[in-house]
Design goal:
It is a single chain. The protein contains nine helices and 14 strands. With 327 residues, it is an alpha/beta fold. The strands form three sheets. A seven-stranded mixed beta sheet has the order 10-9-8-11-12-13-14, sandwiched between helices. The protein has a five-stranded parallel beta sheet with strand order 1-4-5-6-7, with helices on both faces. The chain has a two-stranded antiparallel ribbon with strand order 2-3. β8, α5 and β9 form a beta-alpha-beta unit. The structure holds ribose-5-phosphate (R5P).
Length: 327
């Protein structure tokens, strides 16, 4: 996706900017660095023999705008600790600002209490990032937008949807008018409605229930799917249960083909196998989290969010508006 005319933009070359990566998604960090034409800065991010995270920043960052690229995907706690300790090290090294670039924000599903005596883990994680001395957060498709309010520092919550829309419009060229965009649960309706508008499609909503954690059951579908190409859109795929159950049900209800799109491919447990055996023809995900090679050989199509995140970094450094990237 061409977000801007590269020839005319102010580049980060020669600017007091440093990009760092933890171990969560170095390939994405490399691509962001390539987009910005700035090399990744050197840091040791390793483990002591006792298992604790060891960090040493190996370049001078004094007075620089520093960006730490680290999704908090599995292994969630390790990646989160790397992020926190890197921010701490950069703060103690006199960076001017420290932006945590978190393409996938882990613990986001625990953003409210659903029963007594439960934590609000997303708030705790927000506190940890703030206390570590981050100045700002750039993230992507937060599971719940309200998590932005858990921070007392600025949060840019970007959306992968323009990239996904462009893929459907330019590459797949699905039959306009014969498409129904499906939200696999009530929480995703706004996301699905927005994609439906962009694709000139109708909307359907699945009501699901979770009899226990990580188990999803389809209860009913509201909306007409018979004779249409269904595109299920979600923010993340964890066990794959939500998508796969939705896909089988859509086929039963007469959808002619089923596609799916989700920003964050966590792909826990047997998710890839489940999806491969499902009626989903193709599943579009992003590289916010590293995708295993065997998934890419199967039905998965991975779109990069490197330009989007890189552009948000560039705009933050030059104090330019980021909201253009939301549309
Ligand atoms: C739930 O609210 C989310 O938007 C996803 O639908 C869910 O996290 C997917 O999980 P799984 O793949 O385990 O069904």
């Amino acid at each position: 996706m061409l977000l801007l005319e590269k020839a005319r933009m102010k580049t980060l070359k020669g600017e007091r900017v440093r990009l760092f990566s933890g171990n969560a998604n170095p390939a994405l960090a490399q691509q962001i660095a390539a987009y910005l034409d700035v090399p990744l800065s050197k840091a040791l991010v390793s483990r002591f023999t006792n298992g604790e995270v060891q960090v040493r920043i190996e370049e001078n960052v004094r007075g620089n705008d520093v960006f730490v690229i680290q999704p908090t995907c599995p292994p969630v706690n390790d990646n989160l600790m790397e992020l926190l300790i890197m921010i701490d090290a950069l703060s103690r090294s006199s960076a001017r600002t420290i932006t945590a670039v978190i393409p996938y924000f882990g613990y986001a599903k625990q953003e409210k209490k659903t029963a007594g005596r439960e934590p609000i883990s997303a708030k705790l994680v927000a506190n940890l990032i703030t206390v570590a001395q981050a100045s700002r957060v750039i993230t992507l498709d937060l599971h719940a937008a309200a998590i932005q309010g858990f921070f007392d520092i600025p949060v840019d919550n970007l959306y992968a949807q323009p990239i996904i829309t462009e893929y459907f419009q330019m590459e797949k060229k699905l039959d306009n008018g014969g498409i129904v965009v499906v939200s696999p649960d009530a929480g995703g309706v706004a996301r699905a409605r927005s994609l439906a508008e962009r694709l000139n499609a109708t909307l359907a909503i699945i009501f699901k229930k979770r009899p226990r954690p990580d188990v999803a059951e389809v209860m009913e579908i509201v909306g007409d799917v018979k004779g249409k190409v269904a595109v299920i859109v979600d923010d993340m795929i964890s066990t794959g249960g939500t998508l796969v159950n939705a896909a089988w049900r859509l086929k039963e209800e007469g959808a002619t083909a089923v596609y799916a799109a989700a920003t964050h491919a966590i792909l826990a447990d047997q998710a890839v196998d489940l999806i491969v055996k499902s009626p989903i023809e193709e599943i579009i995900v992003t590289d916010s989290i590293p995708i295993p090679a065997y998934a890419l050989r199967a039905k998965f199509k991975c779109l990069t969010v490197a330009e989007l995140l890189g552009e948000a970094i560039r705009r933050n450094h030059f104090n330019l508006s980021v909201s253009k990237l939301f549309t």
